[in-house]
Every structure is written in structure tokens, then in C-alpha cells.
Design a protein that fits this description.
Largest sheet: 9 strands, mixed
CATH architecture of the largest domain: Roll
Number of strands: 17
Distance between the termini: 40 Å
CATH topology of the largest domain: 2,3-Dihydroxybiphenyl 1,2-Dioxygenase, domain 1
Structural class: alpha+beta
Strand content: 35-45%
Shape: globular
Radius of gyration: 20 Å
């Protein structure tokens, strides 16, 4: 694909939360992230606190307000803990910001320098769906850790093999999916890789539609979902109701040993969606021969799907907040570049069972 808006990678995913210290502790002791950076009262930040967590090429930031009455507090009150910013590392922040605005993006932060003794970082931000931002960052002139204003911390986690952000999924309102697809095409030069309609993603009761957008170099992938009419309330409708509008539904994190990763997460108490055992009775006939022991996959609840380039293994956590909103996907790609279409029915039936328990189906 022609790359009309160069993006190096996802730089970090920033969450707005009520208590950043507790969130950092949770992700350190369940997902195995190391706490590597901090900004707060001790560093001169009087309004907010940040914890930076890292594992291989994944960087998560947890931000919480330190005082009442901040706009951040209002957002958290509306959405609960949520993904505020999917930040991009770019070659030229000023060009990227100006070009995005020229193509139709709304500005959140105009380009500015952040500086300390280790150099300077150029930063800007644009708005996308709901209260989600895309920061634009270049730290080529910076030798410090993460960003100016942060101090480095060394609080190691016990890593579980999470490597990088594979994709981030957004939920938007009925009738808005194509608007945001066009926004990513026009503003960021993304292309529509795959489309799923309500025939692809449906059960007896609910359905949704989805389009997968990818940056010109293919390194950044964003599926965008909207609800479709069904007999009962879909998972997207449930999300929109409890979240209070459009937002990031889940973040998929790549591993190269999903059995190891999921085993560690289960041992640490992370709850996952489950599928009936009959799913595995038909697995080999559907996807062909795979390297993994199907009995082990069945015990862990790991799903498998195949495309023309190989196969993938995936599993989804239950929501990791009190609200039925944000969750995580663990994905292991063995050649496959798709998103598990063959698992949709089993997965969505599993989600419906959880919705029924919550009384929201």
C-alpha cells in the first residue's frame, strides 16, 4: 500500500483511571509489566499522576487526576477507566499534525516541545471517535526515558511473553462505522483490509458489523465496530450504554507462545471468556493440522482460526473493569494476518452468556 501518512509504530496506550497506583500494581502483577517511569507530586506535577509500564515493545501509561474538578475527572466519571490515547511515533510531528488537520482532523494539542536535561521531545495530538486521541510523538532528540518530566523507575514485573500491540478495536454508534472508516482513510491514509457484515458476525440473538483499517505500512491496525439490528442487545450496544458513547473496546497484545502466556495469566487470576468443549471436537476438521496440542488448547480455552497465509490462536479476557467495557485479547500469529472470522460465532455466544449473567442481553 502507498503510505501517505507515515507512522513508525504505536508508541504507547494511555489509560485514564481513578487510581493510577492501583492500576499499575494490577498490570504489573497480572500481565507482568515492569513499572519503568513515574510523574506526580514528587516530580512537580500538581494536577495528575502517571505510571509508565513496559513489556518488550508494549508501553502502557496510566494517568489519574490528583485534584477534583479537572476535565479528566469528568471523563472518568462518564466512562470509567478507559483508553484515552493511542499514541503514534512519527518521523515529523509538525508535518503529521498539520497534514492531519488539513485533511479534516480536529486538533487537541498543537505541536510543542517537552524538554529536560536529556533533550527534547516534540508532541501534538488530534481527536478521533469519542474522547479518544492520537498523540503524535517524536523523541529522536531525546536520550532520556519515555518523556521529559518523568523519572525512571525500576520495579520489574514477571513478564509473560507479551511482545507488541497487535491491534486496537473501537466501538462506535449505529451508522457511524463508515464515517470513521472514511476518517481514517482521509486523515491518516489507512486502508480497509477486511470487512465483516452482520452475516459474518452474528448469532441467533445479536450481531454487529466491523471494518479493519490498517496504516500504509501495515504496522497499525484498527478494527472499527458498530451494532447491527438483532433480537436482543448486542455487545456493542451494551458497551455504548455502559461506556457512555464510543471508545476503545479492546487492545490485542501479541505473543509468540500463547500457551505459556495464557497459562501464566490464568494462574494469576485473569478471567477469560470460554467456549463449549464441542468447539474443540471440530477444530482439526475446520483448521487442519496445527503445532499445538488441542487438549491443551481446550483446557486453556484458546481459539484457533486459519486463513490463506497460516493460522492464529487467540483468547479474550472478560472485562477488566467493573463496567462491561474494556477487555484484552491475547493473540499468537503463525502466518495468519486475519482476525479470527471462524471464531466469531463461538466467541459471540460466549459474550452473550456473560451478558445474560449481567442482565444486559
Amino acid at each position: 500500500m502507498a503510505d501517505t501518512f507515515p507512522i513508525r509504530r504505536v508508541d504507547h496506550v494511555r489509560h485514564y483511571v481513578n487510581n493510577a497506583r492501583q492500576s499499575a500494581f494490577f498490570y504489573q502483577h497480572t500481565f507482568g509489566f515492569s513499572i519503568t517511569g513515574y510523574r506526580g507530586l514528587e516530580t512537580g506535577s500538581s494536577d495528575l499522576v502517571d505510571y509508565v509500564l513496559e513489556q518488550n515493545n508494549i508501553r502502557l501509561v496510566f494517568t489519574a487526576p490528583l485534584r477534583p474538578g479537572l476535565p479528566m475527572s469528568d471523563m472518568i466519571s462518564r466512562h470509567g477507566d478507559f483508553v484515552r490515547d493511542i499514541a503514534f511515533e512519527v518521523d515529523d510531528v509538525d508535518w503529521a499534525f498539520n497534514e492531519a488537520v488539513k485533511r479534516g482532523a480536529s486538533a487537541e494539542l498543537e505541536p510543542y516541545w517537552m524538554e529536560d536535561d536529556h533533550g527534547k521531545v516534540r508532541h501534538a495530538a488530534i481527536k478521533t471517535y469519542g474522547n479518544v486521541l492520537h498523540s503524535l510523538i517524536n523523541r529522536d532528540k531525546y536520550t532520556g526515558h519515555f518523556l521529559p518530566g518523568f523519572i525512571e523507575k525500576n520495579e520489574p514485573g514477571d513478564p509473560i511473553g507479551l511482545l507488541e500491540v497487535d491491534h486496537c478495536v473501537g466501538n462506535v454508534e449505529l451508522g457511524k462505522m463508515n464515517e470513521w472508516v472514511k476518517w481514517y482513510e482521509d486523515v491518516l491514509g489507512f486502508k480497509n483490509l477486511i470487512s465483516f457484515d452482520d452475516q459474518d458476525i452474528s448469532t441467533e440473538y445479536t450481531s454487529l458489523m466491523s471494518k479493519v483499517m490498517a496504516s500504509g505500512n501495515g504496522r497499525v491496525k484498527f478494527p472499527i465496530n458498530e451494532p447491527a439490528p438483532g433480537k436482543k442487545k448486542s455487545q456493542i450496544d451494551e458497551y455504548l450504554e455502559f461506556f457512555g458513547g464510543p471508545g476503545v473496546q479492546h487492545v490485542a497484545m501479541l505473543t509468540d507462545d500463547i500457551v505459556h502466556t495464557v497459562s501464566r495469566l490464568r494462574a494469576r487470576g485473569v478471567p477469560f471468556l470460554s467456549v463449549p468443549r464441542t468447539y474443540y471436537d471440530e477444530l482439526e476438521a475446520r483448521v487442519g493440522q496445527i503445532d499445538e496440542d488441542i487438549e491443551v488448547l481446550a483446557d486453556l480455552g484458546i481459539l484457533v482460526d486459519r486463513d490463506d497465509e497460516g493460522y492464529l490462536l487467540q483468547i479474550f479476557t472478560k472485562p477488566i473493569t467493573d463496567r462491561p467495557t474494556l477487555f484484552y485479547e491475547i493473540i499468537h500469529r503463525k502466518g495468519a494476518q486475519s482476525f479470527g472470522k471462524g471464531n466469531f460465532k463461538a466467541l459471540f455466544e460466549s459474550i452473550e452468556r456473560e451478558q445474560a449473567l449481567r442482565g444486559t442481553l
